[in-house]
Amino acid sequence: MKNVDVARHFEEIGDLLEIQGANAFRVRAYRNGSRTIEDLAEPIAGIAANGEKALVELPGIGKDIAAKIVVLIETGTTPQLEKLREEVPPGVVDMLRIQGLGPKKVKALFAELKVTSLDELKAAAESGAVADLKGFGKKTAQVILEGIEHIVHVGNRFFLAEALVAAEAIVHDLKQLKSVTQASVAGSARRRKETCGDLDVLATSTDSSAAMDLLGDHELVEKVLARGETKQRVRLRSGIEMDLRVVPDESYGAAMQYFTGSKEHNIVIRQRTQKRGLKLNEYGLFRDDELVAGETEEAIYKAVDLPWIPPELRENRGEIELAEQDKLPKLLELKDIKGDLHMHTTATDGTASITEMIEAARERGLKYIAITDHSKRVTMANGLDAERLRKHWTEIRKIREEYSDIEVLCGIECDILEDAELDLPDDVLAEADWVIAVLHYGLKQPGEQIMKRLLNAVKNPHVSAIGHPCGRIVGRRPGADIHYPDLFKAAADHGVLMEINAHPSRLDLDDIQAAAAKDHGIPIVINTDAHSTTGFDVMQYGVYQARRAGLEKNDVANTLPFNKFKKLLKRS
Fold first, then answer.
1. Which residues contact 80 (CB under 8 A, 6 or more apart)?
2. ∠ CA(75), CA(76), CA(79), 5° rounding?
3. Is the Cβ–Cβ distance between 307 and 328 less than 8 Å?
4. Full-prediction pTM beyond 0.70?
5. In angstroms, how far is CA 326 from the centroid of its own chain?
6. Domain identity same for 94 and 212
7. CB neighbours (10 Å) of residue 101?
8. What CATH number does the domain containing 470 carry?
9. Are 530 and 413 members of one domain?
10. What are 529's strand-pairing partners?
11. What CATH number should be reported for the domain holding residue 230?
12. 432-452: buried (b, 16+ CB within 10 Å) or exposed (e) per residue?
């Protein structure tokens, strides 16, 4: 099991215990243990292999949690979590998906109003029962109703980061079977959509039952929902459902093309086959009953006079026309990224020191970084006022002198306040190497005020980039009301970069707006927003988002060597 899976397991235990009203110290122990595991640079499974004593040496890991870690890694679950899941209805856990509802408030709703589902919660909010509850009020009730509406709108979908890790782990294990000759992830996960409703895996095998047996017995699988000779549907422990299809070798390419989608893209491809007197389905490309192509995707596309189209582009958003003109972009790759310009340390809400973040960046081959702790408005993150920020920068400047192979910029993640002023005065921002301006609060303000805030930030001579521009949380919180054409025009005019925040819960800019920013000639910077040394590892999800936007290496500022990147800075 990966660190993130183990960490999530104990975080869920902490949430369920808090919902039940368990001792606060006990709840905190699981949360602290989860945080320790998530921030580890080495695999927790490797440490656990040395026994409980090795685990207890980790900060925040006591004997009880250490024993549970061993059980979890050996069996894929713990009896405690299974028992808690039986005691707390799934609908209660669903309430945690609502932005602003933490375990304490969910506990109150469950214990005092006996609410056990989102439907019941909606009824309670509409009736006034939630507003009458101590510690809630009308505003919280309205937030709950808006949160439920948003959840219904986005559906029961999972972050790509969670879905893809599980799918790729199962594909890896399928490939270890001697009978399996090919196996790949298809569907929306292969297109790298930011969320997935379910998962598709395709394989070719000389023994389909062996592949089915492996999936049915896999440690990530909670339940087999249906099984046939060549298709099996399972529910993973995360809750997401997966289909495995075993197809003939001669149909593998056709099946990959068909099940990768998107529906809109495939409709156009089928129309092209029909114009050529051909018929395309998941089994192959046929002329009458004769198989013309099917073994590879390349052969399918060649038959309709197109080059192979990268899965990330298959949304019928102009990729067909580009392919016809031989103008498909050479999409950005993770290896192209040379810098990361958004991260946090223990100076605010990060878990690693300046030195630890620098070392982690070096280990990943980065050539430059900007340390951008929060400004003072973000009180929950212990944001920095002018005095603390200047001391922080002094420390960064001192430490960076010790390194000759990586550039370290003194940065700040500066809030754009509700009144459109920046959170720190210009004389302070003028001392920074890099200023990333963001919206954290007041996201529900009218679009006119949101635009005033963003445009004021763009016009400020010290702002380098706008970070996670709309402030959305994928699947939980909609973004601010932004008129992007005006924002992008101003950014292009003033030389301000736009961020794709790579954190799987943000991915902001989204793919549509990232493509629009490219059309405006705005350099994109892809950042991790890392709050720990392992936080750098989400960079790949920002790259996936950029690829869906059709971005090439030259469209992304932090692919540049530092001597060229620094020319983009306002105080170069």
1. 13, 68
2. 75
3. yes
4. yes
5. 32
6. no
7. 19
8. 3.20.20.140
9. yes
10. none
11. 3.30.460.10
12. bbbbbbbbbebbebeeeebbe
- Same domain? For 403 and 477 the reply is yes
Q: What one-character DSSP code corresponds to residue 571?
A: T
DSSP states of 101-148 = --HHHHHHHHHHS---SHHHHHHHHHHTHHHHSTT-HHHHHHHHHHHH
pLDDT at 130 over 70: yes
DSSP 197: S
Mean pLDDT (whole number) for 493-512: 96
- In the three-class reduction of DSSP (H, G, I as helix; E, B as strand; rest coil), residue 535 is classed as helix
Task: Write the single-letter amino acid at 80.
Answer: Q
Q: Which residue do the tokens 């998906």 mark?
A: 97
Same domain? 372 vs 391: yes
Is 511 in contact with 548 (CB distance < 8 Å)? yes
* Cβ-based neighbour number of residue 51 at 10 Å: 11
Listed residues 154, 181, 202: the one ending a domain: 154
Q: Which one, of 260, 185, 179, lies nearest residue 214 by Cα?
A: 179
| Structural domain boundaries, residue 226 | 158-246
pLDDT confidence of residue 572: 42
> Would you state the structure tokens that stand for residue 529, as one six-digit string?
């927003």
- Distance, in Å, from the CA atom of 22 to the CA atom of 431, rounded to the nearest integer, reads 48
How many CB atoms sit inside 10 A of residue 263's CB? 9
- Predicted pLDDT of residue 354: 97
Q: Which residues on adjacent β-strands are paired with residue 488?
A: none
CA distance 554 to 572: 20
45 or 41: which leads in pLDDT: 45
Shared domain check, 225 and 268: no
pLDDT at 95 over 90: no
- Per-residue pLDDT of 176-234, as tens digits, reads 999 999 999 999 999 999 999 899 999 999 999 999 999 999 999 988 999 999 999 99
Could you give the residue ranges of the DSSP H alpha helices within 325-430?
354-363, 386-400, 426-429
Which of 37-41, 307-311, 492-496 shows the lowest mean pLDDT across its residues?
37-41
